[in-house]
Input
Amino acid sequence: MIEISKDTPIVILTGAGISQESGLATFRGEGGLWKGIRVEEVASPVAFENQPDVVHSFYNKRKEKLLAPSVQPNDAHFAIKRLQDEWPGGVTLVTQNVDDLHERGGSTDIIHMHGELLKGRCTNCADVFPWEGDMDVHSECPKCHSTGTVRVHVVWFGEMPLMMPEIEDALLKCGLFISIGTSGNVYPAAGFVQVVIQNPASQTVELNLEPSLNAHQFTHGIYGPATKIVPEFVDNLLSR
Ligand code: OAD
Output
């Protein structure tokens, strides 16, 4: 098992698998969000230019799902919050998820590298603001008051993920990298494990329902549903 001292800095990367048991669909596999959808038609700057109503409608529906009363943080989200609170070496939490379940699970200082569904951004003044309701082509920017320029604050295909310098810094300094519920299909997140293993003293573990595309790059792998394996893993780390 993993042998680390309690002053070791940890980086956690989460993906859609951690929110699956909260009732949110993952992207790939059966019933996945991208099944039957041409992603470039709903999640790209070109789509927003050519058919903004289609893009708004796609994200309005995702927001509605996220805000359904049945969708709540699960035991894996709570376990990560506990680790952040109790691990002396510090825990940097990076998520590819655009949902707010880590926030609702009590975590703070979350790096949302793919943006946040419940925020908007103005393509005119670049301001980012909370926006829980529907958006359409008439939505007005609360800062510069232009219309037709408000978009969901989510990173689209062809755009740079957010806060990459901060993430790279944390990856290079960490002694344990924990990847949870991500398939390893999307870069740069899929390449984080390679950054960490540049330091041969670092350890890496993937917690996933099944081995991801990158499973062979991790020093450890634990497989099963996140609500079971993440709390167990955290208990184990904290009980040493
Ligand atoms: P994927 O849908 O690609 O992968 C989800 C992973 O979670 C798979 O490896 C599943 O086996 C695993 N999984 C499913 N249910 C689980 C459970 N209950 N417990 C543990 N693991 C489970 O989602 P991501 O890897 O997050 O980007 O996708 C990465 C990015 O691709 C997303 O952020 C999104 C998408 O295109 C953008 O939209 C920019």
Summary: The radius of gyration is 18 Å.
